[in-house]
Amino acid sequence: MTVSGIRPGLPEPDQGNGEGRASGPLAQGAHSSPPEQGDIRLESLETPSFLTRRVLAGNLAAQKIPDTEPESGGPSAPVQIPGRTSQTHSSARRDMIYPKLDDKQIARLAPFGHFRSAHAGEVLFDQGKEREALFVVIKGRVQIVSPWEGVEIPINVQEPGEFTGDVSLISGRRSLVRGRALEASELLEISGERVRHIVQTDPELGEIFLRAFMLRRADLIANTPGNVLLIGSRHSADTLRLKAFLTRNSQPFTYYDVECEPCVEDFARRFNIRADDIPVLMYPGLSPLSNPSNAAAAEFLGFNTNINVPARVHDLIVVGAGPAGLAAAVYAASEGLDVLILEGNAPGGQAGSSSRIENYLGFPAGISGQDLAERALVQAQRFGAQVLIARPAAGLQCQHRLFNIGLTDGSSVQAQSVVVATGVQYRRLALENITQFEGAGVYYGATKLEAQFCEGEEIAVVGGGNSAGQAAVFLSDHAKHVHVLVRGKGLADSMSRYLIRRIEDSPRITLHAHTEIESLRGSRSLEQICWKNARTEVRETRDIRHVFAMTGASPNTAWLQGGVVLDDKQFIKTGPDLSPQDLAAAHWPLRRQPYPFETSLPRVFAVGDIRANSSKRVASSVGEGSGAVQFVHKVLAE
Ligand SMILES: Cc1cc2nc3c(=O)[nH]c(=O)nc-3n(C[C@H](O)[C@H](O)[C@H](O)COP(=O)(O)OP(=O)(O)OC[C@H]3O[C@@H](n4cnc5c(N)ncnc54)[C@H](O)[C@@H]3O)c2cc1C
Hints:
The protein is α/β, with parallel strands linked by helices. 26% of the residues lie in helices and 23% in strands. Strands 13, 14, 15, 16, 17, 18 and 29 form a seven-stranded mixed beta sheet that branches. Flavin-adenine dinucleotide binds at residues 319-325, 342-345, 349-351, 353-354, 357-359, 392-393, 421-424, 445-446, 466-467, 470-471, 556, 559, 608-610, 616-619, 621. Flavin-adenine dinucleotide (FAD) binds next to helix 10, helix 14 and helix 17.
């Protein structure tokens, strides 16, 4: 990394704890204030040539955004739309992404909106702004573009019968694209709130809208650079953290690595970015943000803008948006409860970090954890559940039958009942210098992000459970060789048979039984590991730069501060697992016994991996989350 120190005075970046700093000169723009003197914003600069080259290099046709308003009110300069869309979709896929509504369907929608005209060139919604409405084109054409660094990348032209919108209409997040009338047009405008009502009440239109919205988002992620720029280093744990955070929140972004892209140096100098500012997050119209925490990044990108947190007492707060929490939210919201979900990081939980879940019912070819999480999140939001991203719960108190959940920023939210679904996280390897390499050679997830580092490398996976097996099999498609290290004599007791078979059959995976890592070595990132076979006492040192640690998990219960009864491993005891002594010690106040999934605190439930004696599987977590909701109804009626 050769970006030189142009501007002194920034504090040292945090390392790998997800709580990066959001202060310092570069951080001052985490809001939409007007630029200050010397405050450089992405949109105010000419397009750096290497960035533009990247855009043009794809099969995307880029258009320069007109500098001046067109005299006619229509788009200036001949804006050429290369066909209806710039991407090459098969016609069947295109019909799903941009379906045409028939007259009957439009007539059904009409009472929910109002008909209006738009003049040529009128911007109907814009990138970075809250997306307030969906437009059905009745007459004329609406052009959708993705503005990026002074260039407009054409996405599509909506014709009569087609409609605008993507998942941001359901989530309430900012729009990723700009939509403008390409000619004088007649439109049916329907507010976001009404769209959410339609997807809940009209199964046919709901399916057409939701499928189109999700496919459009996937398409945007795959085919446009996105309006977010991340400048980072492959040796920086915080860069990996931010990449994972953006990816797992389905936020399209363009990444530039200062180690691999020499021209970034020039760009960084123009933005006053110093080596120790990295990673830097940039968004049009806002000042660059240096090494933001996930919470600061969520605020910067407007992930939670539409949620009015302390406004009311919710029927139910779900803490944790892994499979268990999302399932609870889907069932509770679909049954009419007012649900708020608090997610400390990104939706999907552990499942979201899985490359492919193959044993979840209904997906015979498997499904990536990210896809499953995205679908579940939209499903929960579709039924009206609100989700706060990167807002961890920090404490739980009960006052006069109301629960007060404190958040890490000092604010709090209230509900009549709570479902705790905060799951588990992998334990750190017990090695002296482990923190030095976390995110810079030692990883706790194995997704496409981490797999990129492994191309052509020897790597190690530590652990004998299903997640370690899944990681080994997935990474063997990328790495030169995968060493699976287990403390025990083999895998039979801890891993599913289908994974063991794949490991045995793969010439690129070697199992090392009775083996543990003894030491990690490296300077900026991991360079070497040494392992020891406990039986033979033989030590081996290898030039391995990537270790995936998937050994045993610790429950995320610390935030409850002893407010509910835990077992000896700190998992939450519920229902029949609570002994009379447990209930007496917790001063259980009711004559009835705790319901299934109910903790020692009445009206607080625990589901999924966080629950003592749970099965630690996606399907069982989903089952518990949904199953708990019938008891939530009961306690709310008490
Ligand atoms: C790599 C990997 C592969 C796997 N593969 C499979 C598989 O193929 N099949 C299978 O059945 N299972 C698999 N599993 C296990 C499965 O993913 C888990 O059993 C499941 O995700 C548990 O769901 P959960 O919702 O209970 O908890 P989690 O998935 O752990 O989710 C908990 C959520 O709570 C959030 N959270 C934590 N603390 C707080 C707080 N204080 N405030 C707010 N939010 C908080 C976390 O950020 C997280 O999003 C795999 C796990 C991993 C790690």
